[in-house]
Write a structure and sequence with these properties.
The chain is of the alpha+beta class. Helix content is 25%, strand content 21%. It has a domain of 252 residues: FAD/NAD(P)-binding domain (3-Layer(bba) Sandwich), CATH 3.50.50.60. Helix 1 runs parallel beside helix 11, helix 4 packs across helix 11 and helix 9 crosses helix 10. Bound molecules: flavin-adenine dinucleotide.
Length: 508
Amino acid sequence: MSPFETNFDYIILGAGSAGCTLAAMLAEHLPDDRILLLEAGDDIPPDHETVWDPAKWLLISRDRTLEWGYRSVAQPELNDREIQLGRAKALGGCSVHNAMVYVRGGAYGFDRWAQEGCVGWKYDEILPYFKRVEERMHVTQAEADPFIEDLVVACNDMGIPYNPNYNASPHAFGVSPFQFLISQGGRRETTFKSFLGTRRHTNLHITSGVRFDRILFDHERRAVAVEATDLRTQRQVEIHASREILVAAGAIGSPHLLLLSGVGPESQLRDLGIPVVSALPGVGENFQDDLFVTAMFLASKPMPKQPYGLMGAVIFTSTDPSTLPYLTDVECSLASGTMEGLELPPDKRQSYFIYPNLQLLRSRGTIKLASIHPAEHPMIDPRYLEAPEDIQRCIFCIKLARDIGHNQGLANWFAGEILPGPEVQTDAEIEAYIRRTADTCYHYAGTCKMGVDDMAVVTPHLEVRGTQRLRVVDASIIPTTVSGNTAAATMMIAVKGAELVLASRRSA
Ligand SMILES: Cc1cc2nc3c(=O)[nH]c(=O)nc-3n(C[C@H](O)[C@H](O)[C@H](O)COP(=O)(O)OP(=O)(O)OC[C@H]3O[C@@H](n4cnc5c(N)ncnc54)[C@H](O)[C@@H]3O)c2cc1C
């Protein structure tokens, strides 16, 4: 970005799943305003070796050049393992390297947000915003193959019905074709490409390679400017916004930025000598994620070739059958051992994996400043499995995956269990296996939660409490995760966020 322009009407901080969506909506509706979209990462070239080919997903998620490189602190309930917490640094954010899975999430979760005071966020009210996302991003429904056909038989045998389209009903219970954000031409859809690629507006300035370090406030606690560093030259600049600053740096980046800017728990800020702008105890609290556990089976014959990042089927069910069909908290994805990036020894490549992803975890973690220097990562402590019921529910997940893998419906494929393995039988043995192997689903949320209680960071209009002209619009505002992955909900939040900004503008 050179030379820097330093005066805008709106500044959007972060060009990820939310930021690009928000930028496109505002640029279209405010043609006379100057909008800046600021991002640390760069654009992905059209010939990038792994990003655009959905079947190479497992390879990109290991590409450190696209990564912020976050790690959790040691997790006592996971045998003191430090978990790598993937987060992309690029125009498009995590839509550039996520698994492309598109799940809106069940009605129950959003209705709960509304019941807890988030007026305007009931499922029926937010459904139109999902549809607006789907007008721009192509959702591909996966094709079945002979393995998937038998998987459906196995699930039916276990009382899990076939659901032809989990996004078309308010609850997802069943075994379904997976839906992916993949174009008709078979390429990954990213928010940057889909929302901004072909519709560049002259009023929208997109600046990459710049790290935003702090938000600056005037004496009335109005957010008026951003302090940022050009990562190529290390030059620092101050960029001014005359109307609003919209933070879309994600569930790790957004609380980090607010804390550096003096918005957060008072004692944490004072201990580091940061002047307090708004004392909000909830900033960086309420960290939520989903966890996945793994079952693996040897196949008796070659598995069908997989054109997606995961197998083309998904199973939604519940750890508590009494909640079905309305509330699911387990989403099983599957993979075949021949998929690129799994790097298995030759005798284990003819195999299939079942990955139950446990959602609605009761455990809550934190993000705290490690230092006042913006380049230093914050301390991230997800506190995985701290709530005792979470480990019990993970044990249920392993048993479920085993029951599916061993079911008669898959008898044509089954040639033995590899993981957890025949030696793991009692609940205590399964628990020990989970503590050794459970891993993040990358669905971080909740660290700048929306609400009306004392721990809320933003109001249901996404305004940061105790400040003016400042909103957060990304996955961090999710008060409680819903039954599904987080990308669809995050883009929905951005479409609704844009509408809230436009409504304020009209009433100003
Ligand atoms: C490996 C992986 C696989 C996943 N798979 C799926 C999936 O298949 N389906 C699904 O629904 N969800 C998936 N997710 C989760 C989903 O992608 C995220 O929840 C969603 O993208 C979050 O969007 P966001 O806008 O909140 O944050 P992001 O998309 O992370 O955007 C934040 C942006 O802000 C930028 N930024 C942050 N701090 C700064 C700073 N200080 N200066 C400058 N720029 C900054 C970042 O570089 C980034 O571009 C996956 C995530 C990962 C990491």
